[in-house]
Amino acid sequence: MAKPAPEGLITALDIGSSKVSAMIAQKGDGGELVVLGTGQRESRGVKRGYIADMQATEVAVREAVEQAERIAGVAIENVWAGFSAGGLVSDEAFIEAELGGTRIEQADIDALLQEGRQAIDPQGRMVLHAQPALYTLDGLNGVKKPLGLHADRLGVHIHVIAADGSPVRNLDLCVRSAHLEVKSIIAAPVATGLACLTQEERDLGVALVEIGAGITNVSLFAGEMLVGLKSIPIGGADITDDIASAFGTTRLQAERIKCFHGSANASPRDNHEMVTIRERSEVEDNDSLQITKAALIAVIRQRLEALIGEVQAALKELRFEGPVGRQVVITGGGAELKGIADYAQQLLGRSVRVGRPRGLTNLPEAHSGPGFATLAGLAYFAAADPIDLRGVAPKQQTVHRSKGWRGLRRLIQAAKANY
Q1: DSSP string for residues in 89-106
Q2: Phi, psi of 62 (to 5 degrees)
Q3: 184 vs 172: CA distance, rounded Å
Q4: How far is 260 from 275, CA to CA, in rounded Å?
Q5: What is the mean pLDDT of residues 222-230?
Q6: What pTM value is reported for the model?
Q7: Which of 72, 143, 241, 412 could form a disulfide with 37 if both were Cys (CB 3.0 to 4.6 A apart)?
Q8: 3-class DSSP state for residue 298?
Q9: Eight-class DSSP state of 197
Q10: CB atoms within 10 A of CB 172
Q11: Nearest Cα to Cα of residue 14 among 333, 308, 227
């Protein structure tokens, strides 16, 4: 029988379109995260990141968590869950207070953050994150730690991530139906960025492209925070479906062929190398079927070219350009396709690398690939437990709020101010 969970234990839960995965971790003496147990189950009730079958998803959640509990030898009661469906929006609010040239005390910052809570306008959506980002002193942007400095005016940029309410409520209900308390629901791009981007990359500016099974999230980071995102309803499962349809095989076999023989890059020898699509079966009266590897890669590249084209359009919409618009990190299960970084680099004209979870102690080899970056990032987010203005008491105030992408560009400029 599993022991009760000790203090400081963190359980991350990633409910994706292809798999449901869980991780139990604990902070070590040196502050590092030590993985105690992991679990994984096939996801049958999630489509394009949205829960479409509550019962099937609930079973997968319960089984994945129970597997992690058995390995860790503890029983857990709550989880930090990731939300990866489309409809996520990133916005910014800005407020400013008069200080009269006095030295900034912690009480001044606390009062400003209290006022900032009222500046949040989700416009009918559910707020997942409302976090203070960068401060301003007398109009000077890019200040991270204003405590102890003098200023006539102290301002703060508040980063808000919101989502459509119903899918978030469905996720919450599904987890609670599995007899687990939801500590918090985290936007998947926020978590993924913590797992596979360096602090310097998040500072200077980087685009993160997470290719899931049913959806691809394109996120822009600057000044150590997520400042823009866009979702694309294409993922690795679409490539699998293309293979199954093109060669008349099952999705299970198509996935296996993609993983073992698929690639984003073609070579002359691929015209001669044969891939077995279907073995001969006397029971079903089927002949064996073989194709060239070149034919397989052609099907993969057709869908991949469409996806990278959508990514390029998303990066342009997010204004990821200029000197900082050079670094792209690809992660998610789709990033495990051979040669995808080189292929994306050719089409995007930018430096591209594959992002994998880093810095976790005792992380199993099977869960160390890019497909588990979000899971690792959820554990990192839970360990950091950053300030969220939704927990700050409301107070009456006057605020100045930037609107839409204009405000977002202002936030990006502020993030670059010190670099």
Answers
A1: EEEEEEEEEE-TTPBPPH
A2: -60, -40
A3: 9
A4: 10
A5: 83
A6: 0.85
A7: 72
A8: helix
A9: S
A10: 15
A11: 333
- Which tokens sit at 146? 């204003």
The rounded distance, in Å, linking the Cα atoms of 396 and 87 is 30
Q: Which pair of structure tokens corresponds to residue 31?
A: 């502050």
Q: Which amino acid belongs to residue 278?
A: R
What φ, ψ does residue 344 adopt, rounded to 5°?
Answer: -65, -35
Whose CA is closest to 201, among 355, 349, 327, 341?
327
Nearest CA to 82 among 379, 378, 385? 378
3-state secondary structure of 318: coil
Which residues are CB-contacts of 121 (< 8 A; sequence separation ≥ 6)? 93, 401
pLDDT (0 to 100) of residue 395: 42
Length of the chain: 419
Measured torsion, CA atoms of residues 253, 258, 259, 264, in degrees rounded to the nearest 10? 180
Q: Give the Cβ contact number of residue 72 at 10 Å.
A: 24
- What gap in Å lies between CA 151 and CA 304, rounded to an integer? 52
Which segments of 73-198 does DSSP mark as H helices, in order? 106-118, 165-177, 188-196
For residue 221, pLDDT beyond 50 = yes
